[in-house]
Amino acid sequence: MNDFLIVGGGVIGMMMARTLSDSGADVTIVDKRELGQESTWAGGGIVSPLYPWRYRPEITALAEWSQGYYPELAEELLQETGIDPEFRAGGMLMLRVHDEDDALAWAEKYNQPLTRVDADFIYKTEPGVAPGKEQAIWMPEIGSIRNPRLGQSLKRSLELRSNIRIIENVEIKGIREMDGYAIGVETANSVLSAGRVIVTSGAWSAGVLKDVLPDIPIQPVRGQMLVYKAEPGLVDRVVMLDGRYVIPRNDGHILVGSTLEYSSFDKQTTDEARESLMASARDILPALADLEPEYHWCGLRPGSPDGIPFIGEIPTMKKLYINAGHFRNGLVLAPAATQLLCNQLLGQEPVIDPGPYRPEHRMSEAEAGQMI
């Protein structure tokens, strides 16, 4: 029997498996697909919440801890696996921000490097941006990571560890329980046993827990994106305008995102979203009007009512844990969310206060109607 069984092989599940295995534990990670093929693959890879001052302090605490972790992690994974997650530390330029005063007040409160910049700065920094932009918010320390390659490198890192067992393309039917304790999970053909079970299934987490915690408010939220192939250097950093963004890759690919759609588990792309994303791309970088998107796809975020994840032991069953509900910020918050739950599992001092993320606290907020 394994020490830990992780249900869900996205970035959070893989980071947790890696951290727990490094403690000497035996870990099994199981996914209904191949590891890293859902929202971990589909997202954009910006290592910051979009417009971070608009989030509650609980998100800021996780994001602040996580952001400094990615450069080190990317280098470590490259050396370990030979797969480069391509962390880019170019900064983030947010055009035409209407709540600048709120942004500046947040930056002062949390000691964040955020400044108001003018047109001269904008066009010296990103000459390809559409003309006529008079003001922006600049966050110089924000970077991005190539999330599909991050997923590949994390998976390879797990494969190199002898105390990790990877099970792919196996769907979980439910939690196996005895005397109020989780003892494993049931699949269509077998039972996987473990001392403790951790659900990191993203948008599918509520389904995995349906018989244990049926009212947990995690639901799928579709996000559609495009990618263009341009010459490297057309844009060198993340640029945002009116809630949409472009993200450059080292080889000239430029991601454009994203939509926010409550459409259950429907993963079909739509012509309407394609046209809207293309218009946003042109509004930020007019040169993209001369190109056709290379690919259009979508993924499902694990939406929660206010974006604060559920992290901790499930109150209705011992030895059963969750780390899910990160909404649009799964990759951003993954290092801190991983470390916070691993601290609890390994009896360590938590890196941040775990109270606001505990499932019983989050569920009580929901029942009180406090989630927004």
UniProtKB/TrEMBL annotation:
<dbReference type="InterPro" id="IPR012727">
    <property type="entry name" value="Gly_oxidase_ThiO"/>
</dbReference>
<dbReference type="InterPro" id="IPR036188">
    <property type="entry name" value="FAD/NAD-bd_sf"/>
</dbReference>
<keyword id="KW-0560">Oxidoreductase</keyword>
<feature type="region of interest" description="Disordered">
    <location>
        <begin position="353"/>
        <end position="372"/>
    </location>
</feature>
<dbReference type="GO" id="GO:0050660">
    <property type="term" value="F:flavin adenine dinucleotide binding"/>
</dbReference>
<dbReference type="GO" id="GO:0043799">
    <property type="term" value="F:glycine oxidase activity"/>
</dbReference>
<dbReference type="Pfam" id="PF01266">
    <property type="entry name" value="DAO"/>
</dbReference>
<comment type="pathway">
    <text>Cofactor biosynthesis; thiamine diphosphate biosynthesis.</text>
</comment>
<feature type="domain" description="FAD dependent oxidoreductase">
    <location>
        <begin position="3"/>
        <end position="342"/>
    </location>
</feature>
<dbReference type="GO" id="GO:0009228">
    <property type="term" value="P:thiamine biosynthetic process"/>
</dbReference>
<dbReference type="GO" id="GO:0005737">
    <property type="term" value="C:cytoplasm"/>
</dbReference>
<dbReference type="InterPro" id="IPR006076">
    <property type="entry name" value="FAD-dep_OxRdtase"/>
</dbReference>
<keyword id="KW-0784">Thiamine biosynthesis</keyword>
<protein>
    <submittedName>
        <fullName>Glycine oxidase ThiO</fullName>
        <ecNumber>1.4.3.19</ecNumber>
    </submittedName>
</protein>
<dbReference type="GO" id="GO:0009229">
    <property type="term" value="P:thiamine diphosphate biosynthetic process"/>
</dbReference>
